[in-house]
Amino acid sequence: AVTGPAFAPKVSPPLMVKPTAIMEADFVPPVETYPGKVVEVRLGATKGEGGTRGKALTVGGETTPAFYTFERPVSHPPVITLDVFDTEVPLAKAVKMHVKDVMGDPAAWAKLAVEKFNADMVTIHLITIDPLVKNASPKDAVKTVENVAQAVDVPLVIGGCGDPLKDADVFSEIAETFAGERFLMSSITRDMDVEKCAKFVKKNGHVALSFTPMDLNLARELNRRLYDFLPKEDIVMDLTTAALGYGLDYAFTNMERARLGALMGDPELAHPM
């Protein structure tokens, strides 16, 4: 005999009851401990430290990923440095409206940045030294930095024009003139004479900004070259950001990878950014 398939008895679906409260649960932050630590770097030197700055700043020292304050308090808060240019440059209206009265006068611009906008540091961009702009001499650049250093007493970042040969010559002159000030030389790149630059940074008591284009392997390589002449406490990294092309999300991810690498014990990435 042939029998048909057996059918299960029809079951009514359970009644859906609207919840009246949210289920309570304790949240425990996932606190971790890491084997590595970001190096601490001192920027600027006070009179007692052999410089002329009214204050010195420390960056680095992190033992957790960025913003993980639930794991450990921040060692040193982020430092804000505002840009000052040694010549008039094209600026967006939203920026220019705040600085139009001091453009062309880097000392007055620096004073505005510190006194009105409370900048922790000032970055002086030496645009005029560019051979394709005014080709100003290292001596001219020294005079500009001297005017800025007299106008404000915060630590300074010395920004070049991007020409590897001219920047090295200008940085060398500034480093020697302002020996002991622990200025941040921005930047030392792979296409510069790294040995020459590292030696005058070390000899005159400054800090090198190690600049590479969004590639951690290149950052490691440049830092390794600097280690032959500089202690780790004299190096800050700039991994670069890009709003277009790579995109900001890639730039941030690169920084996160560098920080996690440092915390997991990679000494070549254990520098403040």
Mean pLDDT: 95
Shape: elongated
End-to-end separation in angstroms reads 83 Å
Order of helices and strands: EEEHHEHEHEHEHEH
How would you classify the helix and strand content by structural class? alpha/beta
Biggest sheet character: 6 strands, parallel
Number of helices: 7
Low-confidence stretches: none
Radius of gyration over all CA atoms, rounded? 26 Å
Strand line-up of the largest beta sheet? 3-4-5-6-7-8
Task: Give your account of this protein's structure.
With 273 residues, this protein is an alpha/beta fold. The chain is built from 7 helices and 8 strands, in the order βββααβαβαβαβαβα. The strands form 2 sheets. A 6-stranded parallel beta sheet has the order 3-4-5-6-7-8. A two-stranded antiparallel ribbon has the order 1-2. α5 (194-203) links the parallel β6 (184-188) and β7 (207-211). α2 (106-115) runs parallel beside α3 (138-151). The longest helix has 16 residues, at 248-263. The termini are far apart. The relative contact order is 0.14.
